[in-house]
Amino acid sequence: MTRDIPQLGVRIPAEALRRFWMMVAHYHAQIWNGAELARAFGVSETTVRNYLDLLTGTFLLRQLPPWFENLGKRQYKAPKVYVRDSGLLHRLLGIGTHDALLGHPKLGASWEGFALGQALSVAGAEEAFYWGTPSGAELDLMLMLGGKRYGVRFKCADAPVMTKSLHIALEDLKLERVWIVYPGRESYPVHEQVSVCLLKEVLDELARGK
Predict the structure, then answer these.
(1) C-alpha span between 45 and 137 (Å, rounded)
(2) DSSP helix, strand, coil percent of the chain (3-state; round to 5)
(3) Tens digits of residue pLDDT in 130-161
(4) Are 198 and 187 in contact (CB under 8 A)?
(5) Are the C-beta atoms of 80 and 63 separated by less than 8 Å?
(6) CB distance 177 to 151 below 8 Å
């Protein structure tokens, strides 16, 4: 990877690129904080932003833009960042086996990145956003389909439930429906507009709704 990027005409020292990869892997599925990463990396915020944009442009990273509107409350306005390839993410995090993944603190983030990528491969990324507030209300994914808004939360849990955060998202964003996508075995409703679903079921619904 550190040998391939210079062939695209980009000159970043291999050691700097390796360090950046290791750092950004720990930001996987988190909101981009360029100032924090720049301090840790020992360079300017503009430099780390250029690295981020470079790896996004080469389809190695994904930047999911925020959705924000006039709601009378603070909302996040920086993108969320994902390593597109789950295998690469696990390699960067030193996760070598399935058992190691199950016990790793990035298990939930890994599931989110994988499931998000699958959803966007069906629905497309043109009208895809995340939404969140510093007070804790959030959606991992908001999709515009047929003029309506749909929300998605990705939860790596045995039995996800309805949350206050989702109640706020439903009301503030006027969502048509929300799916809580988890790696379980059966689907069930948790609210009249919210269902806990398997990933395949949501992908099938997205395919029908395009």
Answers:
(1) 27
(2) 40, 20, 40
(3) 999 998 899 999 999 988 999 999 999 999 99
(4) yes
(5) yes
(6) yes
| Packing angle, helices 107-123 and 199-209, rounded to 10 | 20
Over pLDDT 90: what percentage of the chain?
A: 70
Q: What are the angstrom distances between the C-alpha of 144 and each of 38, 61, 100?
A: 34, 22, 36
Report the C-alpha gap between 165 and 180 in whole angstroms. Answer: 12
Domain residue ranges in the chain: 5-209
Token digits of residue 169: 């998202």
**Residue 189, C-beta contacts closer than 8 angstroms, at least 6 positions apart:** 195, 196
pTM to 2 decimal places: 0.90
Q: Amino acid letter at 17?
A: L
| Strand order through the sheet with 61-64 | 30-31, 80-83, 61-64
